[in-house]
Amino acid sequence: MVRRSLSVAIVCSLGLLTAVATTFAQNRNAKQASTATSAQRTAAAGTPAAGTPAAGTQTAGEVPPPPPAIEISREALAGAIGVREVAQRSDESTQLLEELTTEVGQRFTGTAGDKAGVEWAVKKLRALGFENVRTQEVIVPRWIRGEASFDVLSPFPMPMVTTALGGSIGTADEGLEGPIVMVQDIPALQALPEGTVRGKIVFFNGRMERTRDGSGYGKAVRVRAEGPSIAAALGATGIVIRSVGTSKNRIAHTGTLSYKVSAPRIPAVSISNPDADLLERQVAQTRPGGKIAGNQVMVRMRVTARDLPQVRSANVIGDLPGTDLANEIVLIGAHLDSWDLGQGVQDDGAGVAIAIAAARAAVAVNPRARRTIRVVLFANEEFGLSGAARYPLEEGDDNVARHAFAMEADLGDGPVWKLSARVPPTYWATIEQVHRVVKSLDVELGDNVSAGGADLGPLRRRGVPVLAPQLDATTYFDVHHTINDTLDQVDPSHLRQSTAVFAVAAYAAAMVDGPTPRLPEEQAQ
Amino acid sequence: MVRRSLSVAIVCSLGLLTAVATTFAQNRNAKQASTATSAQRTAAAGTPAAGTPAAGTQTAGEVPPPPPAIEISREALAGAIGVREVAQRSDESTQLLEELTTEVGQRFTGTAGDKAGVEWAVKKLRALGFENVRTQEVIVPRWIRGEASFDVLSPFPMPMVTTALGGSIGTADEGLEGPIVMVQDIPALQALPEGTVRGKIVFFNGRMERTRDGSGYGKAVRVRAEGPSIAAALGATGIVIRSVGTSKNRIAHTGTLSYKVSAPRIPAVSISNPDADLLERQVAQTRPGGKIAGNQVMVRMRVTARDLPQVRSANVIGDLPGTDLANEIVLIGAHLDSWDLGQGVQDDGAGVAIAIAAARAAVAVNPRARRTIRVVLFANEEFGLSGAARYPLEEGDDNVARHAFAMEADLGDGPVWKLSARVPPTYWATIEQVHRVVKSLDVELGDNVSAGGADLGPLRRRGVPVLAPQLDATTYFDVHHTINDTLDQVDPSHLRQSTAVFAVAAYAAAMVDGPTPRLPEEQAQ
Questions:
Q1: What is the DSSP code (8-state) at residue B348?
Q2: pTM of the entire structure?
Q3: How far apart are CA A451 and CA A175, in angstroms?
């Protein structure tokens, strides 16, 4: 789950972007209490919602009269409850995830697994009754992880569990040796006296915080994305980071780095949290007051990673046609690719399963969904968001204009703990309706500033409103981007609940009246 | 933690042998309720205890008058409470374990780490005031793990997380390919029609049960120890086992196998539990009713393990001298070696730390411990119990006769949940006294049939009574024999409690009156 913007790679996800956006909104509304009320939530999006009891009570006097709230009909609401029940009774998402894991496994961009994943998805969507099932060719990078080793040579020789960061160059055959300079984060690195890291290997030792909304990841991941080039610009010969993950297991976390063109490329690896603890203890002993003060911790890292020429992958798309508004689309997205270490289960097989099963549940009731429910399984999210960028280009402006709402599942199996969105304020009433339907599934009402996931960025920026059921990320980063991303880590009851919430949201989005909604410019960015 | 007897390797530990012995005892006393009373516990050892309220009420009439119970004095009891308090206030065991992990790490038999461990232990015991600190040379095997890979080739190609079983031979350079035959255990393998596994690779898929006393390990481990030779005798070309461990992590568990001279040697690996789940699902699809019934699951395994000539290691011994009974010894043992994958923390750095810190706490009060408290850190427990076998031979019969009691810590950081023993029945009253002192630390009173740990076997068989504080093994087998055996998995409060219980037991053993106790023949075996 990585998003690369033009100059700097920032990792995004439903939860993360929501958190960032919430921070912005809170800054703008500094006097608001941190627990948002309904009015605050919608106010944060720029305009108070109509049709809610609290609306208009926030900043009395200067607010223009709100436009009429848009809601779904009483019959559609009954249908939404039906969708919830259908999804709650089904274990289709678990079955899909088990099949994908058993028959395909890892689907790292450009590999045979990626290709097998595309074939599986096409076959599966067809078998499940999707129409117009098709692929969209996407050109993707091909990077070979190879082998990596990271050994402390002195003072206390120890091998460590390591893996290359995605996109890292390899070392020379004999590896790269040097002393370690330990820092917590990029500001700490930049605060060191000039020349401190020249010819040395920088060890970023900052810990990721465990959070429900995944915001701990957003904070910790900067060293992975930007660390290599910033350290290289200061003369470092390599970097090693504490895994950007919350696991206490001896498992290293990968994920993309982003080399700047302005700095030398240097090899970059991560080590597991327990190994980082050990390295930290060795470094502590070499510092003033330590048992062997004045010594250096020397390490050797070896990476055989390399780039190959670009190859082809594909977005996979399938539709479940609507009725009177069939020309309009409610998109449920997930990404089909995964990292190579695990089996792409929580990231993002779970999202694939949720998207497909939710779409199916959303068309299983009466009244029938009016808009077409479309599942899009994006290619190569992990290594550059290639599929997400390609999708609106392939669709063309006319077709993008037919996308009424979009949603995405890319933060594990859930459960959904909060229903957020980024919709034109008049549609907030619909979000509240959806919330009332899923409240019994332990879902809180969120805010209207969620970005809705990395793969939705290109659509959102073109004005497509976003529904954002937020998946609980508390344990997600224990397995994310590691060999531990396997089916054994999935809770079928979570998957079922998440599917139900996505299904209800998709159904409501397919039922709501009115012209195709567009986000105003300030919400689209 | 592995014990090899002459023909068959059976894995033993405090908890495991206790469990086995308890079973025997229960069979002999089939009418007894499963929840043992005090009288039942001592009766199970052959003779009812005197001095306990329940004694003599069990099988009235035929029991000879019990010999007088042996207890420690009121002053010694006060001293024992003092020992408990000293140990409870100290974090010495945690400090020791952190040092051993940071400065030495893994101590696999015959490696540089093993040597560094011996050097660390000698230095540490001397620094902590132990007397007569010395090493005993032990000849040990030297096995190189090398690399291992295990890949499913068809129907669904997938790499799996694997490691060689300890002592496995290597495969040919190009690896070993073949179809999988999946069975749950050895009886299931032996029940197959003749020729079923000829030229194939046997997959032992039985799951280990999580238990507090570690008995799940004893049941599950047989496939690891005996599986290779039994499968080879049936014509198999290799074996793969589901990890003998309780972790859901994608981490493979090693441990010794035991090749029989009567069967061809075949390579043997384990795969992680999640990988075994995956392999099981693939096999299921090839069976009747499966999606691709009639197909075979083909795999390739590759192992570069090999044996080198034997090398030298050492037991490390240190004494804290007693007073009027200083000629007699209370031994606290642990093993200094570890497997190579992790850092030897729970297995058995924790035991090393408990033994040293408990011995020190046991001599920190008045009245002073009368017998000498000896710490013995055994060489090569994991790969053949070499140090345990060597110790009584080096000591000689006269010195072994001076060993009053022995105890051992080799089941992780604890806490101690039960106080068991194998002592002459007259000493059971002392065990009950010890239990009253440690009851406030949530310790149950156990039974008098514990074997007390693999490294104590040779002493016990020579009549040395055993005190057996039983360490809680509920989570131990999540990390045991894996790369996950690191300091991060240790709970300092557990380590402190375990140290306190071992210290109180050692102190009481050092204070009890009477001639040097010997186990009667039927208890010694």
A1: I
A2: 0.87
A3: 42
